[in-house]
Amino acid sequence: MPQPVQAPPRRPGRSSRRSPRTTVMAVPALLWYGVFMVGPIGAIFVISVLDWPGMLARVGFAGLDNYRAVLGDELFWDAARNSAVQLAIAVPVMIVGAFMLGYFLSTKPRGYRFLKVVVFTPALISASAKAMIFWGMFAPNGMINKLLGSIGLEGLQHAWIADTSTAFGCVIAIDVWSGIGYTATLYAARLDALPDSVYEAAEIDGAGHWRRMWGIAYPMVRDFVGVTVMLQFLWTLFTSAQNVLLLTQGGPGNSSTNLSFLVYQKAFVQSDLGYSQAAGVLLFLVGLAGMLLIRRVFRAAH
Q1: Measured between alpha carbons, how far is residue 266 from residues 66, 142, 185, 237 in Å?
Q2: CB neighbours of 86 closer than 8 A, spacing ≥ 6?
Q3: Tens digit of pLDDT per residue, the chain (302 long)?
Q4: Quick check: 84 and 150 in contact, CB under 8 A?
Q5: Tally of CB atoms within 10 A around 149
Q6: Phi/psi zone of residue 43: left (φ > 0), alpha (ψ -120 to 50 degrees), beta?
Q7: For labelling alongside 93, which of 102, 149, 225, 233 has CA 20 to 30 A away?
Q8: Do 164 and 255 meet the contact criterion of CB atoms below 8 Å apart?
């Protein structure tokens, strides 16, 4: 009768010896995260309940008065509407365009290495340089109006940045131009990792590029697309204040003021730190809710 095979004896205490060592190695990262990530977020909540009219001014306790002031301010709701429009336009256009461009690069067309460099270039340009480029395009005597005049479309010439109906669209254009190339490069790298046999089988079945892109490539990298949507959503929501500041400064009037610029303006221009951080808390909650919603949407197929 054959004897049962016995598993090799476990070394006693091996996992217990490794666990404390792993914890010690994680301490520097945990300290960094606590000081530079959790700490500032906690500070936002604390400052939002303070009456703090300037960095050197005397600090008092305001309770929920700052939140009442924010929610009762028409400017806040205008900024919230502008941010909603910005996200609804910039993120879908950026993600769809970037995925199509990334798929094109992943097919390795002629000169694709040079194309990758060209596509990634906007991510290497500073925010001030981007603003100057778009100022030169949208100014009354800028490139777009000169181009329209040269082809006989003088009636379409416009003071793009000085008009309340188009100023914020110029800011959105910077967001899309800045992010689409960077995201396309990420998609190209992810799509390069897919096995060639998948595309070859689809080609044998008669699938064209459009079907291969959206019917095969997209479902296989859907989780990665969800990550990029989340990142671009947060980037557009929280960091677009620099584009507003450099290109329109929130104007004309308040037509291009969004939530991130409102937080900056109240803190550094009007020195109303309590109002600014109360608006910042609401902005943080919007970002958190949007992030959870995006995560849920892109997990629905799993």
Answers
A1: 12, 32, 36, 17
A2: 168, 171, 172, 175, 236, 240, 258
A3: 555 555 555 555 444 455 666 677 788 888 888 888 888 888 889 989 988 887 777 888 988 999 999 999 999 999 999 999 999 999 999 999 999 999 999 988 888 889 999 999 988 899 999 999 999 999 888 899 999 999 988 888 888 999 999 999 999 999 999 899 999 999 999 999 888 888 788 778 777 888 888 988 999 999 999 999 999 999 999 989 999 999 999 989 899 999 999 999 999 998 899 999 999 999 999 999 999 999 998 875 54
A4: no
A5: 13
A6: alpha
A7: 149
A8: yes
And the tokens for 114? 């040079």
Q: Which amino acid is at 20?
A: P
Give the position of tokens 């800028």.
Answer: 142
Residue 237, both tokens: 């929501």
